[in-house]
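Data deposition worksheet. Section B asks for the primary sequence of the deposited chain exactly as it was used as input, without tags or linkers unless they were present during the calculation. Section C holds the resulting structure in C-alpha cell form. Section D is free text for depositor observations; keep each observation to a single sentence. Incomplete worksheets are returned to the depositor.
Section A, Depositor: J.P.
Section B:
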Amino acid sequence: MSFTIEERGRPNTQDYRVFFKNSDGKYISPFHDVPIYANEAENIFHAIVEVPRWTNAKMEIATKDPLNPLKQDVKKGTLRYVPNVFPHKGYIWNYGAIPQTWEDPNHKDSHTGCCGDNDPIDICDIGNQVCSQGEIIKVKVLGTLALIDEGETDWKVIVINTEDPDAGDFNNIDDVKRLKPGYLEATVDWFRRYKVPDGKPENEFAFNGDFKDRDFAIQTVKSTHEFWKALISNKSNAGELNCMNTSVSDSPFCCSAADAEAVVKSAGTFGPDEPIPSSVDKWFYYEN
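Section C:
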C-alpha cells in the first residue's frame, strides 16, 4: 500500500495544506482512511509524519477540517513554531500520529486519571532517517510516555521506522536506553519544557515521567483504535471533529471520490514558500 501527497497553498502561510492520496490516486483522509496496521500479526503500525526531525513548524493533522489535511497550527492569529529550548533544536524525533486512533476526551484513563486530548495518538520516531512532511512510514512500537498536557492525557508513543537499518536491534524501551543513551531523558526534558517560552508552566507526566514498555504501549494504541471505531461509526460524539472519509464503508461519514476531490480543489493552488521568520531560530535558556 502506497500513498502520495498533494500540496495546496503557500508553505509557511495559514492557507498551506498537505492532502493525501492512495495508490489509485484518490484523495483520502490520513486520520480515517490510512489503515492503522501495516502488519497486524506483527503489530507493525502506520504512522503519519507531521513534523520532520530538527524542524519547528507545528504541522498537524487538521482533525476539524474535511479530509483532515496537514496544516500548521495557529495561535493568536500567528503560525505556531515550537521554540528551541536549549540544548534542543526543533523536534528531536520525526513526530506524527498513528491513523485510525483517537484519544477520547470523554474517557478518563484508568492509569493517568485524565481524559484524552481529542487527537490521534502521537508518535516519536527515533530512527536515523529524517523523514519528509506527510510521509507515511511503518513503525515498530517500543514504549510510551504519558504526558499530562493542561489536564489531558497525551500519550507519546516511542517508535522506530521498520526501514531503519538499526530497527532489528530495537524491540522494547530498554533497547532505547541501552543503544541511544540520553535520548529518553532528552525526550522527557523536551516535553516538560517546550511550552515555557510561551509563558506556560512546565508539563507534567504520569508514572513520574517513566516510560512504559512495548506491551503497555501496544495495548494503549489498540485501545485508542477502539475509541476511533466508535467515533467513525457515530457511536461517540464527534463534536467539532470532521470524520469525512472515503473508505470506511459502514461509516455514515463516508463520501464519494468526487466529494473528496471537490474539497481539495477548493483549496488554493500550490505556490512559492513564504520565508520562515528569523525568530524561529532563537534559543531559549532557563534554569530547570
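Section D:
The CA atoms of residues 142 and 171 lie 6 Å apart.
The helical segments are 173-179, 183-193, 214-232, 257-265.
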